[in-house]
Design goal:
Layout lengths: L1 E4 L9 E7 L6 E2 L4 E6 L4 E5 L4 E6 L6 E3 L3 E6 L7 H9 L14 E2 L15 H4 L5 H10 L17 H19 L7 H16 L2 E9 L1 H16 L7 H14 L5 E4 L2 E4 L5 E7 L2 E3 L2 E2 L7 H17 L4 H4 L4 E5 L18 E5 L3 E7 L2 E15 L5 H16 L2 H5 L1
Length: 406
Amino acid sequence: MYNFKFADIGEGIHEGQLLKWFFKEGDKINEGDTLCLVETDKVNAEIPSPVTGIIKKLGAKEGDVITVGSVLAVIDDGSGEDSSEEIQAKVETEKEDEPGGVVGDIEVSNEVIATSSEAQDETLEEKRILASPLARKIAADLNVDLTKVKGTGENNRILKADIEAFNQNQKPIEAFLSGEGVKISRTRKAIVDAMTLSKQKIPHSTLMYEINVTKLAEFRCEQKELAAKHNVKLTFMPFIIKAITLIIKEYPIFNARFIDDKISYQNNINIGIAIDTTEGLVVPNIKNADTKSIFDLAKEVSTLAEAAHNRTLQLSQIQNGTFTITNYGSFPTSFGTPIIKYPEVAIIGVGRIIKKPIVEGDEIKIADMMPVSVSFDHRIIDGADVGRFLAKLEQYLNDPMLLLLN
């Protein structure tokens, strides 16, 4: 009898909501078949069966929150027979904090769950509203009127994110007036845990600098037409990513891990991009960014941003980042003190580029200045290291041709 547990899939994901079972008790399931769909704070993950056999017991109902280590299913794989009482005991007595083993690769699905399981006693008005079962459950829990929510799914279907976005817009005002607390979303809880872990584990220090990007701004404008012909939206971000990959090759300490008093230099350069969404901050990353052209990087930035806003990011896109860029330049902000994404060792924050008077020689000129803030793990990176990092960044962004020739 195989005791299949919800595995630790990493990236700070400790629980999820079971959206749908694809098999029922008594069904035969083959190894690799999708057993169920679980929604986490970051992705919707299809959980495959690790064995072939007969499903004897399912450990949760659709809509239940499951935690890492809890039993998903008991499957008779021919290894031994348990009584029905023993099978039930396995499910009921499993401790939430018991570790679960990772079994194979977790595939990811972004499909909206059909509404075939909606309650039969819905009113006619409710039936006219397209909403996923999970969205309806959350709406009921939060006392949200579905008729007032705008759906962003297919055919204007209301999704979980729509309910939470609506509730975030409405609830804080009511809570402020009444003194009532506002329960945070699962995504916000994940952010709370990640930020707390980072600040507890890493002694942060931050250096700030302004870089003259006048030539880069001119070069970008000159190449916008060419980029458009290749269906590329050319922002400053791909140039920054390219520069950072070149610096990391020269100073690999910025692409390392520091765990158990050991420095582990990462072989791949996977650059994370912090993206602000209605659900909160997510950080997908560009794999092997050092092998890609400026246009390739620009396309990937756009693709990741779109997926983040549509909640269609795959698990592989948020795993194994090695260095992060956070861009708060869309706001009237110059410098900041960004928090490192543990277990990475550095992060760069980019502020709004503005025209400012600078002194060159004995002359005052107007230049496009980009403020940057680098937070670093001061256990293994010194201020002098960051100084060299910033000097190189200035060199590359001052002369964009260097980025194309490297």
